[in-house]
Amino acid sequence: MLNVPSQSFPAPSSQQRVASGGRSKVPLKQGRSLMDWIRLTKSGKDLTGLKGRLFEVTEEELVKHNKKDDCWICIRGFVYNVSPYMEYHPGGEDELMRAAGSDGTDLFDQVHRWVNYESMLKECLVGKMAVKPAIPKGMLPKSQVTDTRAREGPISPSYDWFQTDSLITIIIYTKQKDMNLDSVIVDYQDDSFRAETIIQDYSYLIHMELFREIQEDFSVRVVANVGKIEIVLKKKEHTSWKCLGRALENHNSFTPRKDTALYYRKCQLISKEDVTHDTKLFCLMLPPSSYLQVPIGQHVYLKLTIAGTEIVKPYTPVSHSLLFKLMEPVLPNDKYIYFLIKIYPAGLFTPELDHLQIGDFVSVSSPEGNFKISQFQELEDLFLLAAGTGFTPMVKILNYALTNIPSLRKVKLMFFNKTEDDIIWRSQLENLAFKDKRCEVEFVLSAPTSGWNGKQGHISPALLSEFLKRSSDKSKVLICICGPTPFTEQGIRLLHDLNFSKDEIHSFTA
Ligand code: FAD
Ligand code: NAD
């Protein structure tokens, strides 16, 4: 049984008070936490009032259910009675009511596409939307919506394949020149082969049940100058294939990423090390039949089933250390994913994660995020403002900047924490600053002990104006900021006040 405190949730100081992206979260009544909701859904209570029956819901019917105590919402063609959930919704009742009696898919996707509503709301399911012969705009099935929009984006890739006795080679012609190995994600699980190619904000999918079985390991190659991707599969039996296989859902589609569902694969917990009193370094291993590299500045979603309900939370992979060149052996980064995760004793997800044993599995989604490596082009001054675990995106950025940006003159990190004990990888950071003269690190504590001689307080105009000195008047600058939402929001305001432009600031949010 999970022990959830009985005070109002989120706690007044909780990071959950404000949603990422700046949407305010509302205080929830006592007994209305997510864990309380999960308990209610398991209680056997008839939450839809329909005694377990499922309906085909017409549009005319849907619009009738538009009141707080009778509120139906359609998400991706499925209709839920969300009235019982109203008081548990972290964004508040008014936010849910915006979609009352209508298709809330777009609204939902804008705010929290990654939340696993199918699992959270399964006891509220009323049924499916009845499909009409002529479908009005706004209610189009997903594939049609995405096809229409895709025409406005980059040119759709195409694919081809050929075989030898032992190998199948799939070639994806992306028609783009800036393809990297982290633009391709390949999975072969449950008899389904999936190769997703990310092109700007679009996703090109090959999704097939293959003609015959293949071995677990395969190789991926990118010929960058012609934008060609080659995936080489090993046949299990050396026989000739008549075709590549049978097309599965969304095969050969080119879709805006925001319209594609998150895809998960089960990863195994390999190691877990203490980093501070409450933060740990987790290492997860991808299945042998998955190929995935998380690009710099992007996050993934971890999924666990807690009390029978699938819970999903975002986390930002890090490299296994900051001083990776000095520490051997390094596990290959296309098989292992590292996370620095703070365990909140009263949190829903992190205590469960912490209880996993080595060898247990966690589902890991494909990467998401809007950070682009092109933001580093010609960069001279890189400033990183991180608070608490908001340090995580800065890890790969630091590593990349110091090794891959020839124009870089300096990289300065201002790292905000409550106490000295909370500073993640302090000695590694100090070492890095000592070894590389371009690198400077400043720690700022909001609740220091009396012995602390360094900087104190919260993010402020005084701290920032002193810290953010360009190396020359016109130097190209990028400022990355990440931490609790109020920290990030305040930081962005202060940076604008200091005349940094929108293009010079990148903030990390969900
Ligand atoms: P929650 O249940 O969300 O609880 C959070 C806080 O609320 C805690 O302080 C908890 O004590 C308090 N609380 C919970 N229940 C109650 C209650 N009933 N009453 C009062 N107080 C309560 N985090 C990392 O550690 N590492 C990362 O790399 C990382 N990357 C992220 C990337 C992105 C894009 C985003 C948006 C967030 C990231 N996070 C990261 C934060 C992470 O997603 C979770 O929010 C965090 O791990 C907390 O999850 P939780 O379910 O354990 O806690
Ligand atoms: P924390 O509570 O330990 O606070 C760390 C520091 O943040 C504090 O010392 C203070 O300087 C500052 N801070 C905290 N609350 C503030 C406020 N209201 N106003 C101004 N400054 C404030 O931090 P934590 O528990 O490690 O939380 C880290 C946060 O970073 C979480 O909210 C997490 O979701 C977020 N995060 C986001 C991403 C992302 O990519 N979006 C990645 C990792 C972490």
TrEMBL record:
Please give one Gene Ontology molecular function term for this protein: metal ion binding
Recorded E.C. number(s)? 1.6.2.2
Q: Which reaction does it catalyse?
A: 2 Fe(III)-[cytochrome b5] + NADH = 2 Fe(II)-[cytochrome b5] + NAD(+) + H(+)
Q: Which CDD domains match?
A: cyt_b5_reduct_like (cd06183), p23_NCB5OR (cd06490)
Is Endoplasmic reticulum a UniProt keyword of this protein?
Answer: yes
Any one GO CC term of the record: endoplasmic reticulum
- InterPro entries named among the record's database cross-references: Cbr1-like_FAD-bd_dom, CS_dom, Cyt_B5-like_heme/steroid-bd, Cyt_B5-like_heme/steroid_sf, Cyt_B5_heme-BS, Cytochrome_b5/Flavoprotein_Rdt, FAD-bd_FR_type, FNR_nucleotide-bd
Domain called CS: residue spans: 154-245
Check the record and name the Pfam families matching this protein: CS (PF04969), Cyt-b5 (PF00173), FAD_binding_6 (PF00970), NAD_binding_1 (PF00175)
Region listing for Disordered, in residue ranges: 1-27
Record-given protein name: Cytochrome b5 reductase 4
* Species whose genome carries this gene: Rhinolophus ferrumequinum
Lineage here is: Eukaryota, Metazoa, Chordata, Craniata, Vertebrata
Instruction: Point out the gene that encodes the protein.
Output: CYB5R4
